[in-house]
Amino acid sequence: MQEQKWAKSHKVPDFKVGDLVLVSTLNFNNIKGPRKLKASYVEPFVIVALHGSNAVQAEFSSELKINTPPFQNPTPLTVPPMEQSEDKKIKKVIKEWRLRGRNQREYLVRYRNPVHEDEWLAESEIPDSDKLLRQFGHERRPQACIYIYRCALNYFI
Questions:
Q1: Could you tell me how many helices (H) and strands (E) the chain has, helices first?
Q2: Which InterPro entries match (predicted)?
Q3: What is the chain's mean pLDDT, rounded?
Q4: pTM score, two decimals?
């Protein structure tokens, strides 16, 4: 029922060359007066050409000129891949984060090369994790590490 009502009121317009269309004044900067009193759409214009299924080219009068191009050139979204190189070595572990509901921890690591951004990694993904995590724990709680070390020495002596 609702689908039928929606389909009835949302029909795809079927434009043809020579049809008249109203144009939104959103991109017209040369219409004077307060925005509240401006017309949302201006006079019907003749369609000159069709560009795809939802874009048309209209013939404007000389007093109305649009300041933006009708079709924006898409910017390339391809990002050059990061190369796995030797300079992507981990400098140190910065933060620790425990995943909720799991007994897993992730660590924010900083790389030696400033080109690479900080990244959250699991302990299994960190090379030399035992050394780096021990160093991280010592930086966070230096007194606790010394206490554990002393207790271990007393145990073995």
A1: 3, 6
A2: Chromo-like_dom_sf
A3: 75
A4: 0.37
